[in-house]
Amino acid sequence: MKLLMIDDDTGLCELLSEYLTAQGFNVQSVHDGEQGLKLAQANDYALILLDVMLPTLDGFEVLKQLRQTKLTPVIMLTAKGEDFDRIFGLELGADDYIPKPFNHRELLARVKAITRRIEHITTMNTTSSNKLVVNGVTINLAAREALIKQTTLTLTGTEYEILALLAKRAGEVVSKEQISEDVLGRRLASFDRSIDMHVSNIRKKIAEHLPNELIKTIRGTGYVFIQGE
């Protein structure tokens, strides 16, 4: 699988490229935001590792412009303790984040959790008509897309996975911890708002087509997809 790493730390790029290549990935590195954006727009990568602090264009601007045309999965590389960077990146459509400095094994686990979706897409039978319809939302499990009134919602891979999980268990409370483990492939850390931000993004996109609140927050527990009548 092809990965793109956009980071101005050339030493880190070399180390991670060597490590991820040994794990079977094809890694391309670039060290400024403008060039990284051009490559991301012109090529189909399985995943992009995107640093926040970059020359020419910062990581937020790269992600913002990329999301106008592509839903390529993105893991943001953020400074440790910079909660604003994490939240803002998720608001712009990042799939996950990992604070620097990080353990290379943890990064590999995050990468594999997201790229497993790509493997699933390429091996499943896309001619299947397996669909789930819940309270006005149609989840096409084969095509991995969600529709409202025949209009496809523009969801990132992570947003789709969360929506599909909640829809499959409509009427049940699904904990944030369960969502994180099932979708992000990792345990939810204390004060981690990633699931909250992804759900917020999903709600905004649904609200463009349906006035009713379909995903209800159960304070201190998780979320429930309203089953409807």
Mind explaining what this structure looks like?
With 229 residues, this protein is α/β, with parallel strands linked by helices. The protein folds into 2 domains: 2-123, Response regulator (Rossmann fold, 3-Layer(aba) Sandwich); 131-225, Orthogonal Bundle (Arc Repressor Mutant, subunit A), CATH 1.10.10. 41% of the residues lie in helices and 22% in strands. It contains 8 helices and 12 strands. The chain has helices spanning 10-22, 33-42, 59-66, 83-91, 104-123, 157-168, 176-184, 194-207; strands at 2-6, 26-30, 47-51, 74-79, 96-100, 131-134, 137-140, 145-148, 151-152, 173-175, 215-218, 222-225. It has a 5-stranded parallel β-sheet with strand order 2-1-3-4-5, with helices on both faces. A 4-stranded antiparallel β-sheet has the order 6-7-8-9, with helices on one face. α1 (10-22) links the parallel β1 (2-6) and β2. The termini are far apart. The model has no long low-confidence stretch (mean pLDDT 91).
Query: If you compute it from the alpha carbons, what radius of gyration comes out, rounded to the nearest whole angstrom?
Result: 18 Å
Number of strands: 12
What percent of residues are in strands?
15-25%
Order of helices and strands: EHEHEHEHEHEEEEHEHHEE
Termini Cα gap: 43 Å
The helix content is 40-55%
The major β-sheet equals: 5 strands, parallel
CATH superfamily of the largest domain: Response regulator
Structural class: alpha/beta
Number of helix segments?
8
At CATH level 3, the topology of the largest domain is Rossmann fold
Q: What is the overall shape? A: globular
Q: Strand arrangement, largest sheet?
A: 2-1-3-4-5
Mean pLDDT: 91
Number of domains: 2
CATH class of the largest domain: Alpha Beta
Please state the second-level CATH architecture of the largest domain: 3-Layer(aba) Sandwich
